[in-house]
Amino acid sequence: MELPVAPQQHQPDAATLVRAIRRADVILARTAAEETELSGATAYTNPARPGVHMANFAAEVRVPEGQTPQQVVDEVEEHFQHQGVLCHALVANDSAWSPALVQTLEARGYVRSGACDVCLLGRYVPPTIPLPPIQIIPARSLYPQLREFHRRAAREQEDADETLAEQLTQTRIDHLDEPRLEVFCGRIDQAIAGLVAIVTLGNIGVIDDVYTAPAFRGRGVATRLLDYAIDHCARAMFQSVILEVRQSDAPARRLYESLGFCAVASHHKYVRG
């Protein structure tokens, strides 16, 4: 199998692919948070889930003509204070932050998060390792089992207490209301071993999440799920398939590169210090 599989006139540039990754985050945020347009940002808030970063952040942060960076940050902070939640992260409107806005954010105590790479699938390289027999089915058919899977993942990934784990779980379940999201679960012996999520953005497929439960790691589950996701993208005739990986996550990077993904851009956000 080769990708791209659809005729294409040009390859999206790096800035377009970064915007696609950020757009996927916004699409999912809308299922679990209230969206408010500010003059210099778009705010997403959910006071009922104050600890959930993906439901309390500011996107498309920019400095409109006639305003200063200080005024933009003031407006963002005042809005979140009025909602009674913290703004856990700020994401730039452009692929790069303006120096003046960076200076303002750092003066307010925000810090630059670890950089993430946007990886584009070039020529797909099929896995060479033996893959485990897995039953792969749509997540929407597994609601009760999926809830418990997400709860355990929240405790393992986020070191969350019971309250935060429930908030994170409900947020993940809310994401399933978005029709442009497809989530596939891999089951072994009737237990969910892992999942992979794909967001459709026009002719771009964004692989949004790949996760393997601790008890099933080291058995090729993530590789099998990615293989399935890439095949799904090929059948959907996407011209580009992308995903995001933290630059510090060496094991994930090796896996993605082994399948034909290559880093084409990087970006970062500002978070609470």
What is the topology, as strand order, of the major beta sheet? 7-8-9-10-11-6-12
Order of H and E elements: HEEEHEHEEEHHEEEHEHEE
How many helical stretches? Answer: 7
The largest pleated sheet is described as: 7 strands, mixed
Counting DSSP E segments of at least 2 residues, the number of strands comes to 13
Share in β-strands: 25-35%
Catalogue the unreliable spans.
1-8
Distance between the termini: 45 Å
Considering DSSP H and I runs of 4 or more, what fraction of the residues is helical? 25-40%
Whole-angstrom Rg: 19 Å
User: How would you sum up the global shape?
Assistant: globular
Mean pLDDT: 93
Q: Which structural class do you get from the secondary structure elements? A: alpha+beta
